[in-house]
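Researcher: Batch entry, complex prediction.
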Amino acid sequence: MIKCAGCQEKEASRLECPKCKKLGIAGSFFCTQDCFKKYWNDHKVIHDIINIAAKAEEEKSATIPPNMRNYAFTGTIRPVYPLSPYREVPKHIQRPDYADDPRGVSACEMAERRTIQVCTPQEIEGIRKVCRLSRDVLDIIASHVRPGITTDELDRICHEECIKRDAYPSPLNYNRFPKSVCTSINEVICHGIPDQRPLVEGDIINLDVSLYHGGFHGDVNGTYPVGKVDEESAELMATTKRSMEAAIAICKPGVAYRDIGNKIEEIIKPKGYGIVRRYTGHGIHHLFHCLPNIAHYGGSKTPGKMEVGHVFTIEPMINLGTENLTHWKDDWTAVTLDGRRSAQFEETILITENGAEILTRYSKNKKKKKKTAGGQAANGVADGDDTPEGAATPTAAQAAQGVESLKVE
Amino acid sequence: MDEVPELVPAADDPYARPRIPLTLLTGYLGAGKSTLLEYILTADHGYRIAVCMNDFGDTTDIEAKSLTLCDPSTGEQSTSFLSLPNGCLCCSVKDLGIAAIEEMVVNQRDKVDWVMVELTGVADPGPIAKSFWENEEMGDLVLDGIVCVVDSKNFLKQLDDNRPGEINEAQRQLAASDVILLNKVDLVDAAQLDKVRSRVTAINPTLRIHDTVKGNMPLDRIFNLHAYSKGKFDTVHDHPSHVNSISTVLIPLPRLTPTQWSRLNLFLENVLWTGKLDGVDINVLRTKGLIHLDDGREMVLQGVMDIFEIKQSSEPDEAAPGKIVFIGRGVQDLKPALISFVDL
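Model: Structure tokens for the complex:
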């Protein structure tokens, strides 16, 4: 017997509360119209509750773009729209070929040669310059990372810092990426689009900065804690960075490209983390992305060996849980399939006679710079001496230290 | 006595992505690819097969390509156009066509057991096979093998089609394939068929050959080949090379010492990754091998064009002789070079 929703005693008839029916609340059957009337004041509260809940839900999703409102997000991060308007780059700054293409396609990249380019000393000088500018900009943006700041604000800072350096922010309009930097928070693996979401204490955020200057691209990224982060995240970030450093340390002429992934796997596997397979490191020079492809996982079939003059990135993306990923319906944002966190570190490196020079890392202390130029660059890795001295502000130095400082906490 | 039940594995990782096998179908226009596909889509074989029939080969234009699915329980077919998946414009996926097929198959995972991709008649399957095989590492499709359909009546003519300085498509298709279906055997006499067979074997002796009429044959002849994962393949002997022609060289291998093993790896890297032997261009289209090591391990070598992979065999077979096979142009020179470099 179904009891009357009013008196809770008599058997309900087939008469239903019309308002409940409209709101989609099932089972509001009453015995008689009189009974319904008698209990109306008590009953109608249920309508208000549902209305309030629906409104709250609507408000919450108002900032999610309509095509993603029914999307099954894997974690807790949501896009917060609208995006800010397109940021212009002044006309006097040299633009890559895709900057003004309606589809953001780089014609040069499409016509890419099938071999890895050996860069000339002049080209290397140009790449070195833009790589250092990229590092500078990354350090400056990182110094602004704090709870409350939006990723759009970080994008504005990146954009302006690029312009100050006569550089075009490489991500802008690359295959129609709408912003000047990639901001990837927590379960976002890479290619997060800066939006109106304020950073929250305990988040981890990856800032992926690429500049185009003098006809060359530079590419560098790092993952930073927002305030104090949990131990699990700190450990993930530290291990990810360690795996990148170890991979850079094996680079020298004659080493097979697939050994990079083997090295990273050696460090990551014992931790039980997942190594992202979908995204790889890449060659970089006058093209933003080109050969070689750098697999970050072990046992890849990647052909080829390093030669003096090769320039490429190493940028492992490491997940706390599954290596598998999916994408938001915005063409870009890659997220972990289980919604757990992901960290990434990246440098652009050059193969030299003796090893590798990390082009996106340099000491601003002149004495040290000289030593680096003397061909001992690879030692910089072993020293762990990667903190730019005399960086813009003390917070910049702190931020650049990133992971190291976390260990102290 | 009670029978002890088999232990069952713990619940699957909910975030694991099941992998779906894929077969590439190559062959000249008119060889009978479409008839074969028609048969595959309609025959009662129990597989739920997704077929990409639009002459795959062009990596940039995916707009006009579609995928046809058949449901064996109802016999119903459905066709939909491929679309570019989310987030694939970035540096990870090398081939948008592959990305599109993968996306579509993955979205209908519970309806698909097998994927077949038909290549254009003029396509060289080598680079396409290479792309699919490379993509395997990061994707959800596993390359099972390449099937070539040929018209027994016209095939010899196609093989002899002379292209000054280059290898014609018919030869490239033979070199890249794992199974060849000699179609239209009802239209040729026994002598002609023998000629076709011996030419096929001369170019690629690792091929499995089947005769068909109108593409009709059991699917197990073209499915579950594991051509890119297993080390078992039949070879007879190597054949002399013709100018502008593909041939196969077979190099028997003894058990290798650790030094020989590392020299062999170095040899493969030097030759395959650079495409040169002692500074001279060499065109290897396919590499296969079974390698026994001193310490008892058995290794399987697979390669397409410049990429190769060596994995430890999961089902070692002491009786299977160690050997390496190179298929391509000018590969005869590899034999003495390898023997001396590895110091066999």
